[in-house]
């Protein structure tokens, strides 16, 4: 019988949300760690982490990544909180080596796996080469890190099946549908109706919508029995039109929506069981 527990992921800052857009986006190591604690307290069982440099810009520099993640772990431990860390592997302007380097050092339970390239927001190439995807899939299996397959466009479903057949991904797949990015699939019911039947057997799935599609995608996901909802300032900066949100507020709202839909909010231990994760540290 399908579990009724709902996994809430908090995507804290992403690569692009800036202080000029919202003062609430965490960019310093201390802000990221504090938001991780606040979101775990609010009900998030998964924390999705990108890292910024001293100027607040996206970075994949290994030493910085390790510093931030270790600080997050320390602050969660101080607060006696348990959360699954899901570290990004995205970063088109960085080398493939740098995009992978932090993973075997930090040994997170999850990492992002973007199964294809696209013209992101019709402004730049969101690059994920076949060689990179093979390397990342191999590394995930070696280090027992669960890939979160972030699906932005329909063709990525076929790519996941391809890498599964070739042995670079293993069952069960966890899909993270990221809808509403210009250049990808829109955040509507038609997109979800296309994607869901193409999931591989035994898979789990979560959903988020970008910007104005954020709340509609949460409601669509709950209506279709999703395993998880992703929220956070990476994807959307508003609680409602004209009202800026904090990450914790977005987590709290997702929990309330889940409860209204008859779902129990998953703890980190619940999420580990649902996703089949290996806890390393």
From TrEMBL:
One of its GO terms (molecular function) is metal ion binding. Transmembrane segments: none annotated. Pfam families: BKACE. Keywords: Metal-binding, Transferase, Zinc. Its cofactor is Zn(2+). This is 3-keto-5-aminohexanoate cleavage enzyme. It comes from Intestinimonas butyriciproducens.
